[in-house]
Amino acid sequence: MPKEEHEIVRNDLIELMASFDELLNSMAKIEQDMEQKCLKHLVEKKYLEQAVNVIKKIQYIDEKQKELQRLRAEVDKTLQMDIHCDGCMQLNTDKNVKTTFWDFDGHNLKIETSRVNGRSYGSIVPYEIVMELCKAISSLDSEKQKCFAAKDLLDKTEEIIKARSGYKKSPSHLVRCVLHVMMDEGLIGISEQSPRKYAVLVKNEDIMSWAENLANRLHDDETSDSRLMPSFIETT
Predict the structure, then answer these.
(1) pLDDT digits (tens, 9 = 90+) for 210-233
(2) How confident is the model at residue 72, as a pLDDT?
(3) Is this model's pTM higher than 0.70 or not?
(4) pLDDT tens digits for 37-81?
(5) Partners of 102 in the beta sheet?
(6) What whole-number distance in Å separates Cα of residue 160 and Cα of residue 154?
């Protein structure tokens, strides 16, 4: 998602939060007035039937307040995820990953993952290895929704990954990182048949086209995220 779209989304969410707060404050004021003025008057005058109806309305308002508070919490949770606005992408990740970002500098796919245990992990994936993984996925089957496991790709690309001089991380870690990026791009998703497998969501040629067009995602030094460019923490 481009920087401008991130800004629009964030601003819309902030405005939505403000609208929730305004609406909740108004509902609380109405509820308070109904209790302290209307209901109190009806009870004093012994208009019990009307008082019961007012109590039901107060209960209804209270239920709607709780529903709005739940929705507000969801919006707040989204904002707390710190939508990234510097040209990189936030990924859809598994339950062990808090936030993940990626960037491409024309030669390497650079990926940063912050896990729930507080440690950050980074990977620099050479472009030719990204291409090999895309070729491996494309060769699985010509039909959409073809399911595969990360191991299927590892079997096809492990030797190529190991042969890459200077690469320090395990091949399986590299494969998972690239798969996270492809999920964010909408190329693959979690299989409905098995949560441990992935499903191809596009045509094979679309996967290869994405890999070939990565070079168009160059970022200027001024807009690139400084957290992605330095040396990365090694996985253990």
Answers:
(1) 888 876 664 444 344 433 333 333
(2) 83
(3) no
(4) 888 888 888 888 888 888 998 899 989 888 888 888 887 776 655
(5) 89, 111
(6) 10
Structural domain includes residue 159: yes
For residues 139 and 148, is the Cβ–Cβ distance under 8 A? no
- Contacts of 89-92 with C-beta under 8 Å, sequence gap 24+, read 89/1, 89/181, 89/184, 89/185, 90/184, 91/180, 91/181, 91/183, 91/184, 92/180, 92/183, 92/184
Residue corresponding to tokens 């208009």: 47
- Asked if 75 and 151 sit in the same domain, the reply is no
| Count: domains in the chain | 2
- 106 in the Ramachandran plot: left (φ > 0), alpha (ψ -120 to 50) or beta? left
Tell me the backbone φ, ψ of residue 149, rounded to 5 degrees: -105, 160
Largest CA distance in the chain: 89
Pairing of strands 108-115, 97-104: antiparallel
Are residues 42 and 145 located together in one domain of the fold? no
Statement to judge: residues 43 and 116 lie in one domain: no
* pLDDT score, position 207: 87
The whole domain housing 11 covers 3-80
- Which of 50, 80, 110 delimits the end of a domain? 80
| Residue at a domain's end among 80, 100, 116 | 80
Burial class (CB in 10 A: 0-12, 13-18, 19+), 108: middle
